[in-house]
Description:
- The chain has 7 helices and 28 strands.
- By secondary structure, it is of the alpha+beta class.
- It is globular, with a radius of gyration of 25 Å.
Amino acid sequence: MSATKLNAFNILFLLLVATxxxxxxxxxxxRGNHRxxxxxxxxxxxxxADLTNDIQEALVDGSLCTFFEEDGETxxxxxxxxxxxxxxxxxxxxxxICELENGKSYELELPSDSRSCKDLMDExxxxxxxxxxxxxxxxxxDPKLETLKLPKGQQLKxxxxxxxxxxxxxxxxxxxxxxxxxxxxVKVVAKNNGQTSAVTESDAQLSDSVFGTNSDPLNxxxxxxxxxNGKFNVVPAEYGDQGDPNRIVNGVVTVEVDTxxxxxxxxxxNAAIGKLQQMFNLGSQSPKGIMADFFLFALPPDTKVSTxxxxxxxxxxxxxxxxxxxxxxxxxxxxxxxxxxxxxxxLGLGHASESGKAYGDRTGxxxxxxxxxxxxxxxxxxxxxxxxxxxxxxGIVEINEPPTPGTNVDLVGFPKATGITLIKIVNPLFxxxxxxxxDIYVQFNWKKDYNNDTQESPNTITVVGCLRKTLSWSFLYAxxxxxxxxTQTDFFATGCSLEIKVNSLDATTGVAKATINAVGNACP
Length: 524
């Protein structure tokens, strides 16, 4: 009998080994050489799963999660009109996130024998909001540390079902950047040793600050409506049956959770999602698309980083790039620039940098944000406006070949209803494997109407480069007045450079005249 049991065990063992060695569709080995990137990305923790930790929960083998790149917001929250001294040395850091099918999300921890999350992002294997990961057996959730730990010696199965539109440089969530979209502000009340902590604003005040439901003149709804020329319609979510005491009206709901602020933003938000599932009988369904398209979590002002860093406050605000969740600490959820910036991340926009500073471009909302409930009135730079698909097709001049002789364009500031509002110059050297080559966008940063408070270089021609990545990261190259010339050497080819010249500009009429030329011996 003993021999019979041993043989059966051996047969079972051999079958398991053989199964594990079969390559799965889209299986990616976590082992390999590390790559480098010119973009700083947090590679994530590489601890082993601690099976003795009784707060960890084992996931079912084959569970799916969606990969997100958290923008790692270190925005300094400056005052309108003041120099961004605090932002000059800020790095641009991203964190790897996995969201389970129930809508709860966790920081992704790869084992120490794996390739890093950074490597997989750099090579395009992991793409924010696109990649679906089949989690291997032995994956653990640590809800207290908001982490998802993958075991050693496994292959990561990544499925990218939706290709990124690299050629057109459109936003990752282009389909979500037009049309009627519902938003839900979730005010999270955290219990702290018998005490509660939350933002001081009432539901009505939050609703007014985000949607203007009580005549707040400048908010997420009004500014997106104007910047998109009516193409992106923010509406407050409404959910629940008539007579339901939990019924949501005017886009705000308050939930109380048994989670301490020292646990950090994701445990608080995950607990809030669980509470919403209970309140509205959602079971284990994600509330996304059922209750609202986008969720803004208003977290207590004393929310900390995590239990591993229980004294440091969480970053002021951050989002899941291309996702549906933004997180705000304290009253910045009521400030329009924070609202616009974080929703910009949800729609697929990266940061707007200048001179090596991650938040250096202050011409639009993807640079630093501002502690003000009344401003500033501005939109996004030309590259980001194009990525969102808000320019009319007949309002864009797209240059795909070296313009010889030069192309003359009458460029209007985008608050004008008609005319050419953007010049896009496609980089012929672009590849998906390098960040060195960027398309160029030329825009007249007209200080007018809903762009009246642009914080940098008003009434100038701006030249912005933008990566065709899963998030639209932009780089402000030049701010030009009449008579100025900007040259980018070897843009079209070695020996054929791009030249942009401003012939004139008129801040009164909002019209500028520019010439785009290809110069050099190698130009056709």
